[in-house]
Write a structure and sequence with these properties.
Length: 353
């Protein structure tokens, strides 16, 4: 099976880095030995390069083979031993193959034996330390990779937990709107009101606007459509006690928001502001974009703000959903409306759909 592109890139990068470091180390070693070398400089650099590559091959081989090692053998030790054996072994093979036919072996020729010993001894002094350094860096890289993987996994789990909490809060709120609306329609139908068909039409409009929003990413534009349908329905129920106005900046309609954000504010204004008030009142919805912030203001002229009165679970759940969705970039403020009623303000970070 073919490797994925990112994994291929990582493996290729590691191979290229190892090759470059190996060749650079052999070149530096050759420069150090050049003053005492009695043969051709090209021969020196060539032999060092080939021997270094042989040591690299041994290092890479024992990195993965054998797959299972006895408990008393550490893989890093096997790699270092492989480097210590591979480098002089390759030098020995090169000197042996370079001996012309009919001539004595290189270890019987003083100059050639001396050259072999110099290269082998110097390589054995330097190559294992380079291998150990590479192992330490590799261990650090693996530790960093594992830490990043753990952090990514923890972030993903945290995100899933937040999503689950958000869906739970949303599931608690959705029936609240639907059942209240259906109860209002039922009362009108039971009373035999001739306006029942118009109310049912508005209910259908409301449900068509609300059901897609409940389980998908919402925008202030879709929230405004939902609020418009809801207020039409409520106005038919209490036409002499409810008036409303919606002012929406077109630039703010594409802003992403938690589902049912605007609907929660409007429904809260109807239930806790207009319904309990004998003379009813007005509801004004204003949505505008101010730079990198979208500002939502819902004002009613109903019962008014009371520090001792509980406004229900709607606003509390909405505040928690805003925190889960936007963090500290979202703000919800409740204040008294002068001369009567309540004003609720939400500030959201501008995030286009």
């Amino acid at each position: 099976m073919a490797l994925s592109t990112p994994l291929q890139h990582v493996l290729r990068s590691r191979i290229v880095v190892r090759l470059l470091v190996t060749l650079a180390a052999s070149a530096c070693l050759g420069m150090l030995l050049l003053p005492i070398w009695q043969s051709e400089p090209l021969v020196l650099f060539l032999r060092l390069a080939v021997a270094s590559l042989a040591a690299l091959c041994a290092f890479s081989l024992f990195e993965r083979w054998p797959r299972q090692l006895p408990a008393w053998i550490a893989r890093w030790a096997l790699q270092v031993v492989g480097v210590a054996i591979g480098l002089p072994g390759c030098l020995f093979l090169m000197y042996w193959l370079a001996t012309p036919a009919g001539e004595p072996p290189f270890w019987q020729v003083a100059d050639r034996a001396g050259g072999f010993l110099i290269l082998a001894a110097t390589g054995l002094l330097i190559a294992p330390w380079i291998a150990l350094t590479a192992l330490v860096r590799q261990k650090d890289a693996v530790a960093r990779h594992q830490a990043l993987a753990f952090e990514l996994e923890r972030s993903e789990l945290s995100r899933q937990a937040l999503d689950a909490r958000l869906h739970l809060l949303q599931a608690q709120i959705e029936p609240h709107f639907l059942f209240n609306t259906l109860a209002n329609v039922r009362a009108l139908v039971a009373a035999g009101s001739p306006r029942a068909p118009s109310v049912l039409d508005s209910l259908i409009h409301y449900l068509r606007a609300s059901l897609p929003v409940l389980h998908q990413q919402a925008t202030l534009g879709s929230e405004i459509v939902l609020v418009q349908a809801y207020l039409e329905l409520m106005q038919m129920r209490i036409p002499d006690r409810l008036a409303y106005r919606i002012e929406a900046d077109p630039a703010a309609r594409e802003c992403v928001c938690p589902p049912m954000t605007l609907m929660t504010l409007v429904e809260n204004a109807v239930r806790h502001g207009i319904d309990p008030c004998e003379q009813g009142g007005d509801i004004v919805v204003c949505v505008a974009r101010e730079g990198s912030t979208c500002r939502v203001v819902v004002t009613d002229t109903g019962m008014g703000f009371d520090d001792q009165r509980t406004l229900g679970t709607g606003l509390a759940s909405l505040k928690e959903r805003l925190t889960l969705s936007c963090g500290d970039k979202a703000r919800l403020v409740i204040s008294a409306n002068v001369p009567a009623g309540t004003t609720v303000i939400i500030e959201l970070p501008w995030r286009p759909f």
